[in-house]
Amino acid sequence: MDMIDPFGRTITYLRVSVTDRCDFRCTYCMAEDMAFLPKRDLLSLEELDRLCTVFIEKGVRKLRLTGGEPLVRKNIMHLVRQLSRHLKSGALDELTLTTNGSQLARFAGELADAGVKRINVSVDTLDADKFHAITRWGNLAKVMEGIDAALAAGLKIKLNAVALKGFNDREMPELLRWAHGRGMDLTVIETMPMGEIDADRTDQYLPLSLLRTELERQFTLSDIAYKTGGPARYVEVKETGGRLGFITPMTHNFCESCNRVRLTCTGTLYMCLGQEDAADLRAPLRASEGNEQLASAIDEAIGRKPKGHDFIIDRRTSRPAVSRHMSVTGG
Ligand code: SAM
């Protein structure tokens, strides 16, 4: 039953973009004026649950809900509670989500009650004005309330920050001290060329090798073997005692250990974040009440999982590597 791709990689991690809509418009992620997937194409929460369950039966041990902003999907807690049965049965090791934190104050308690133990919260800056500028619509105070509520509910938090040249590079030491001071890990991410945005990515792109060198002026970083099942490589920061992760899709791709596939809210399965090839699972899902057709469509898709991605950001390459935005496939 296991899902093993042509390169011998076993697929144990499913990320599900439960909506491509978001209450923020981060400048590196989306254009201000976005065309979203038509609502009529959306899978229902019951259909998403059925799809996730088939993936779990086929060997997925870790499930991440993402988006868009997962907590703006109507009734999302219904799906979380439904999926949590797989935690109770032991079929799933982890149910988690990635959120911008805007709705966390409202949902943190319920998430913890449903068995969610850890979440990722995306925060690129601690400066309220800069936060508003980068997210276009976001309110940092509300996100901070959400983080407080999540910590109070006992959720472990990993902060995600996209490293952006001239925007938050100088602020990273402060972000690191703040995160570690509150018992949160921090992961920095290289910006990826996904979807048309209003800005020029070459102006934003910061290779993390440069950021690491800069941080090493102030901090002692030691590589550690810590893994969360995702693509980050971690160091321990001696001065703070906390962990710092690096996600480097540009400077060092991590495809050889890829254990993931990504499902959109319309039932499209992407076998790689950085390639256009995809498989439609909505048709086999709706074709019959049994799951046989669905399971064989999944097997067929895994059988063509590509070796990896080749993202390029430079002045000569004006088009993004893939046309869809990160919010479609789910970050
Ligand atoms: N709305 C949720 C959030 O903000 O975390 C989940 C979806 S968001 C697309 C997931 C993550 O992808 C966020 O940390 C975001 O900063 C990151 N992201 C978005 N576009 C990106 C890009 N082009 N390159 C790298 N990371 C990106």
Backbone shape:
globular
> Could you give the count of β-strands?
12
Estimate the mean pLDDT confidence: 95
Number of alpha- plus pi-helical segments: 12
Work out the helicity level. 25-40%
Contiguous runs where pLDDT drops below 50 for at least 5 residues: none
Between the first and last Cα atoms, what is the distance in angstroms? 27 Å
Give the bound compounds: S-adenosylmethionine
State the major sheet: 12 strands, mixed
Give a summary of the structure in a few sentences.
With 331 residues, this protein is of the alpha/beta class. It has helices spanning 45-57, 76-83, 85-89, 104-113, 128-135, 140-152, 172-181, 201-204, 208-215, 282-287, 292-302, 326-329, and strands at residues 13-17, 62-66, 94-99, 118-122, 156-163, 185-190, 221-223, 233-237, 243-247, 260-263, 268-270, 278-280.
Task: Please give a structural write-up.
By secondary structure, the chain is α/β, with parallel strands linked by helices. The relative contact order is 0.17. It is globular and about 60 Å long. The protein has a twelve-stranded mixed β-sheet with strand order 7-8-9-6-5-4-3-2-1-10-11-12. 30% of the residues lie in helices and 18% in strands.
